[in-house]
Amino acid sequence: MKVLIVGGGGREHALAWKCAQSPRVSEVIVAPGNAGTHAEPRVRNAAVSVGDIPGLVELASREHVELTIVGPEAPLVAGVVDAFSAAGLACFGPQRQAARLEGSKAFSKGFLRRHGIPSAAYRIFTRHDYDRVWLRAQRMPIVVKASGLASGKGVVIADSVEAADAAAREMLGGRFGEAGAEIVVEEFLQGEEASFIVMADGEHIVPLASSQDHKRLDEGDSGPNTGGMGAYSPAPVVTPAVHQRVMREVIEPTIRGLAADGTPYTGFLYAGLMIDAEGAAKVLEFNCRLGDPETQPILARLRSDLTELCQAALARRLDAIAPQWDPRAALGVVLAAAGYPDSVCLGDVIEGLAAAARRPGKLFHAGTRCEQDRVVTSGGRVLCAVGLGESVGAAQTQAYELIEPVHFRGMQLRRDIGCRAIARELLGREPLTRWVSNGEYSKRMFVNAVRRGRTAGGGR
Ligand code: AMP
């Protein structure tokens, strides 16, 4: 059968690569894809943009596509699954009403409150009822969020009332257009973040392997927020006890609640969580799709056929299937363009791709395109190098070795992806739990721990 992947980033390269491995699949079409999907065996790009929903429906019909998987949130929130369903086409993802969980943070907070699912305390404001007096009475830091889709840029963690007020006014004043017409102002949560991603069929739930990403641009989790500079799976913070608790307190009530509200959820559901020192999780956000870059290490570990899983979900038979995972860890390091995340330089030639392809691991493309016989940068996050290993530390070593030959002008990367998990592997859970509960993430302690592991030789 033919499979269509909608999107053109690193997540979609990983989805296409994974689907192309299935013996059931004759060809994978990616719309619009990137230079990585262009070069992938049994994969072909089609020049249809993710925003062109009629064009995507037409492409799937014309090519007799039997399964479509949607990568990014914008077409889901705009109703791509509804359009495919109306045309009698199988498309894995939530319908527009269910995708509001990501499309509107105001909706999502109301949903969480209504269904008693743990999340930060909050208030919602529009331009007409914004209340600076209330803001002044709150504890700092506080978090200000544009309610709508803002490409991951609509969240400000403000240390002072002035900074929070400025962010709120900017958003309400139109900085993100309609996405900022409503804002959520919420309590700042402490702990360790983890991504919890499941597949749902409206009723049944299959959790994917746990993962964790690094959102900040700079080492030691400092600097501006980005779409993600790296990720790894499994995430040791998601212990079996935390996993059970998240399923029971967050995921199950969410899927049940959506069904009860008349908007059953089929698709990947991503819960961004803050986990405290006691292992209690609160929802930071929902995404109605897979995370990027978490998808790359997660799919590197998936042994089952992804197309079978998606088709089982579309048939409401996820209760009859259990995905198999590679027990090894996987870790992905993002190579970002100069200027990312602000003003990104595009069009720089990427060297060393052929040499990297001969090394162990997998180099997924994100913001890349072919220009004559060269590959050039075409987005903020350019590549994601994924390594596998017996531990997160070993996977990290392979990922960094994979990118050694790769270079482009102004290339940015973090050298400490996975540091928390590696520290846990080196030190056990206790010390980290204590540091997290103190609210102190001490870069020096982690760096020293990792160094100790290196000099101890192979302990990682
Ligand atoms: P979001 O898009 O809502 O997940 O926010 C992006 C990032 O901002 C999250 O991954 C967290 O690092 C941070 N963040 C969001 N909400 C909060 C919160 N209530 N407390 C602490 N950090 C937060």
Summarize this structure as a short list of keywords or feature phrases.
460 residues, alpha+beta, five-stranded parallel β-sheet, five-stranded antiparallel β-sheet, 22 strands, globular, disordered C terminus, binds adenosine monophosphate
List the helices and strands and how they pair.
Elements: E1 2-7, H1 10-20, E2 27-32, H2 35-39, E3 43-45, H3 53-62, E4 65-70, H4 73-78, H5 80-86, E5 91-92, H6 96-103, H7 105-114, E6 122-126, H8 132-136, E7 142-146, E8 155-158, H9 161-172, E9 182-187, E10 192-201, E11 205-207, E12 212-213, E13 216-218, E14 222-225, E15 230-233, H10 240-260, E16 266-275, E17 281-287, H11 295-301, H12 306-314, E18 329-336, H13 353-357, E19 362-365, E20 368-371, E21 374-377, E22 381-389, H14 392-403, H15 419-427, H16 429-437, H17 443-456
Parallel strand pairs: 1-2, 1-4, 2-3, 4-5
Antiparallel strand pairs: 6-9, 7-8, 7-9, 10-11, 10-16, 12-15, 13-14, 15-18, 16-17, 18-22, 19-22, 20-21
Helix pairs in contact: 1-11, 6-7, 15-16, 15-17
Bound molecules: adenosine monophosphate (AMP).
